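hiii, so i know i said id send this last week but things got crazy w the move. better late than never?? heres the sequnce for the chain we talked about at the cafe, plus the structure i predicted for it. fair warning i was half asleep when i ran it
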Amino acid sequence: MPSLFRKGCLDAQRLILAALFGAHMSGASSAAEPAWELLELRANLTQLSDDLRPRGGSREPRVRDLVEGLSWSLPNAVPSNNPELRDPATPAVFGWTDGRMALATLSQVYGGADNFDVLQATRKGDNEAILIESGVATLDQLRRNLTNRHIGWDVRTRTDVLRVPIIVGQDATLQLGRDEVLMLSRRDGAFIMNYGRLEVMGGEISATTDQNERNDEFNPFIASLGSGSVHLSEATFTGLGFGNTEKFGGFSILAYPTLRPSQRSVIEYSSFEGLVTLSVVGVTNVELRENKLFDMRRIPLLISRSQNALVVGNLFAGDSPTNAIRVSDGSDRTKIIGNIILEGRRAGLLIASGSDHVEVSGNLIWHRNGGGVKLHNVACGRVEQNTIVDDKQKGVEIRNSRDSFIHANHIIGNKNAGIWVSDQIASDVTYVSDNMMRENGSGVATATGANIAMSGNDLSMQLPRLLDGDVTQHFRSIVRDLHGQTPIILNAGGALETEQLSPESCES
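okay and structure toks below
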């Protein structure tokens, strides 16, 4: 049992969520819910957030153990199809290459921004990089095949320090086992570029904290490109990444037009702390399960141009300047399930830029300095069974998005609207059903919100501000039916009864 919560509190905490949410799901009025239960929930979320701060000492356990005291269960119904590990007995073949060639490949697709920082950070007049040509390279093999000039031993931290870049070839694997630590030297311009397979099982790859005298912007990074794939399990990554690009953000899985990975990438039960971004760009079917992301310096998790990603049961905590999870640029059919997002700025989840048929379900989002979930310029987004509490902006925001389905969420205490719909075209319909909204700045608000199909929503604890924006004057249609027993279509012109409660065009 983790130290986050005293054992004596667990039963009470289980009753909190059961009382808070169980009454709504059974159709009972939320007016019977004692206020102290919600206060207790908020206190426990505050305690969890405090315990997860750098000096809290509670970042080590797995996500499932960290959130146990909240009586909030992670999903376990989605199967995990882990790829097989390469046989470490296959010896690696080492060679040398020019590190600038790897940067040139990156630049062909991802531009030349920040390349000069990498080139300048390497040792003067030295562009050589270790090439793992084939086989499986372990940390022990690196020690035996390389000199202290290339991989050294830090007496103070008692860790191996990589002092030159490593390029993992298409037919090769770099593998770290349990408790093995490889530090990438910032002073020497080290990084890892993977065209083959990177497997870290219980090991760590992090950046050293020293400065690079030739370029103070540079920081080590790991990029898996084109044919490269990764399997990370119970791994740790700290302090990686620099700049504002996807390629040098810390840990990146990037597509390349003429190189396709032979295996799927899986990241599970791992910890990322102080990176710029964990990026997945242009790669399909990536799975990220029950990872911890702390104090990320830009977007903690970016899914861009990557279809069918599965993001399930991950924990986001600490300070971050923007969305915890951003799904963008046509990342269709991504599933964002059962994640917990604590604090940070802007919307916790942003689904944007033509990323259609995305599922956002079962997530817990608390105390963002922005909103909870935002759908922007997408079609057929589903926001279901999420718990969105105490954000400074909207609970759920729908903007310029067609056939959105907002169902069975608990939206509580957000400073702006519980559900906000805007910038829609006249024929758009947003489907809002079986949600419980209470204590928000308003219940449902619109600004050119077009049509909202409403049914079964519990607004009995949302008084007095039920509606806002274009539909404010139609509040009587909600006051007469605070539990939404009569389905209606609500727009700026009024409210009419309806039978269409979900988008037919999204079923395929």
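btw The first strand starts at residue 93 and ends at 98. thought thatd interest u
miss u guys!!
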